[in-house]
Amino acid sequence: MASILERKIDQGTGREKADIVLRGGRFFDLVTGELIASDIAICGDTIIGTCESYEGVEVIDITGKIVVPGFIDTHLHIESSLVTPHEFDRCVLPYGVTTAICDPHEIANVLGAEGIQFFLDSSLETIMDIRVQLSSCVPATHLETSGAELPIEKLLPFRGHPKVIGLAEFMNFPGVIHKDPICMAKLEAFQGEHIDGHAPLLSGTALNGYLSAGIRTEHECTTAEEALEKIRKGMHILVREGSVSKDLHSLMPIITERLSPYLALCTDDRNPLDIAEQGHLDYMIRTAIGAGVEPLAIYRAASISAAKAFGLRDRGLVAPGWRADLVVIDTLQNCKASMVFSAGRRVTKELFATRKSIAPVGLDSVKARPVLASHFGVPVTEGETPVIGVMPGKIITEHRRYKLPSDGNQTSLDLDNDIIKVAVIERHGKNGNHANGFVQGFGLKKGAIASTVGHDSHNICVVGVSEDDMAQAANRLGDIKGGFVVVEDGKVTGEIALPVAGLMSLEPYEIVRDTLHELRKAAYALGTTLEEPFLQVAFLPLPVIPHLKISDMGMVDVDRFELITSSRNA
To answer: Cys-Cys link to 166, which of 140, 149, 193, 458 (CB 3.0-4.6 A)?
Structure first.
């Protein structure tokens, strides 16, 4: 019997029929930029013929269609889709995303190594190719209590796993620049392997030092100028468009044919409702082309350039010898997938049914103490009060200060200036910490919204106008083992249970999608003006560093380092 390699050669030369032949369409050559009329022949998981005529055991008519390489999401946290890897696979693969490079940073901050193992086990069973980068910053900060710690000793056992690419986004850029021993141990261990970056606004010699550690990719650029400096210094820029962080329009000036070999696309955080309403990477491609970006540039960024950036040498082109990850679309402009192939397998409902299920983990991870309305008080202090300023469409926030009204010895919210209360409540059962403060930009006029999705340590975060409603929302999260809750006038008006580490649902993505739609309506009834109020709540616990300068000598000058809270750090 002929080996797999021999079969590929025989089918490629035409001595034997190909397993599958796509006939009647054209493919987009990402090397020359041509649309080429041709049969596309497949043997097993590999393309074995183009630019010739082939006979096949199965012949599929794609007359009038265009074939492009499968799309690669180069940086995302599957947990932020609110579904398990298996449901993410079923949700996103039909949109043409055949490879997803994920950082299980969120579940790792709750469960540690157990969370990473869950993702690796899942990645061996999904139809799409899920690759894992090992979470580099667990905990993400000493300013908040996370559920786990991952020193280098706990990461090393995963390094040789076939789905592991390297080290995930290295967020602690001050630690890199100042040679923090914990950072250095991780960087030393992964020299020569892929190390993903995370260094918003870093520039000058500080950026040079950061890159000298072998960090090669970056998804935090928010302006073309920032991206260009990083490209000039050898970084591969991952253009991001998620449910909260929306950088595509700002970065369109750099998405050109000349720069496309140094670009890729990513979503970072995108939920099933947005996927259903807009799409995934296909949405980015459509939007970019509609705004005038050259199709060749954006399709390269979505596939071949992304593959090269992460060392995936077997995919990204429609060409013999390359992995048969293919998307059949109507036009380059609309990027609507009518057929998808993952490693030569046509994606169907029946194909998903062949996967082995993986037992969920972290079903009892919400261990927060019950809270009362009185726990949300903020004592009066002299002068102005720190306020977190939400910036719609961004995960970064502004440090603002206001003279807020008071009631006795308690600081009050200020609805005229859209300033309401925010609290972070430790939920991992470690210390019961509870921190209160104020936030501006949600538009809430009543009620409360609470979440166990709270980047990056994933404690309970609750915002609200009513302290009674805030307490009820936070306590309800314990009842449903994590998720999102909306409370209005003492009544739960919307909720979704996310019992897998307090981050992911056990339900099919369709149910999550439909529930999110109702949940969003409940939040809008409170008056919020934010497009994604729940993910905005989720990003509020990120530490606030109002003024951080890194000089040309790499010295950190912190004029003011302040958490906007009134009590102990959560």
So the answer is: 193
- Pull the structure tokens for residue 59: 């012949």
**Overall average pLDDT of the 437-458 stretch:** 95
Per-residue model confidence (pLDDT) at position 543 = 60
| Banded pLDDT at 141 (limits 50, 70, 90) | confident
Expressed in angstroms, the distance from the first to the final Cα of the chain is 63
Please tell me the predicted confidence (pLDDT) of residue 140: 84
Task: Record the tokens describing residue 358, joined without a space.
Answer: 């993986």
Quote the pLDDT of residue 567.
38
Residues in the chain: 570
Q: Which residue has the higher pLDDT, 567 or 328?
A: 328
Q: Which residues pair with 387 in a beta bridge?
A: 400
Spatial distance between the Cα atoms of 402 and 393, rounded to a whole number of angstroms: 23
Query: In the beta sheet, which residues pair with residue 177?
Result: none
Mean pLDDT value across the chain: 93
Q: How far is CA 550 from CA 177, 180, 205, in A?
A: 10, 16, 9
- DSSP letter for 272, please: H
Sign of CA dihedral 183, 188, 192, 193: negative
Give residue 557's pLDDT: 29
Q: What is the pLDDT of residue 418?
A: 97
Mean pLDDT, range 44-68, rounded to an integer: 98
Distance CA 355, CA 255 (A): 37
CB-based contacts of 407: which residues, under 8 Å, 6+ apart?
none
Burial class (CB in 10 A: 0-12, 13-18, 19+), 527: middle
Report if pTM > 0.85. yes
What does the pLDDT average to over 71-91? 97
Distance CA 329, CA 312 (A): 23
Report residue 282 as tokens: 């296909």
User: How many other CB atoms are found less than 10 A from the CB of residue 541?
Assistant: 28
How far are the Cα atoms of 49, 137, 200, 537 from residue 170, in angstroms, in the given order?
41, 7, 11, 23
Residue 345: count of CB within 10 angstroms of its CB:
17
Report d(CA 214, CA 226) in Å as an integer: 19
Name residue 237's beta-bridge partners.
Answer: 218, 263
| pLDDT band of 142, cuts 50, 70, 90 | confident
Cis-peptide into 414, omega within 30 deg? no
Query: DSSP string of 206-260?
Result: HHHHHHTTT--EE----SHHHHHHHHHTTPEEEEEB-SS-B-HHHHGGG-STTTG
| Buried residues in 385-413 as b, exposed as e (16+ CB within 10 A) | bbbbbbeebebebeebeeebeeeeeebeb
pLDDT at 563 over 90: no
Distance CA 287, CA 279 (A): 11
- For tokens 């009820």, what's the residue? 472
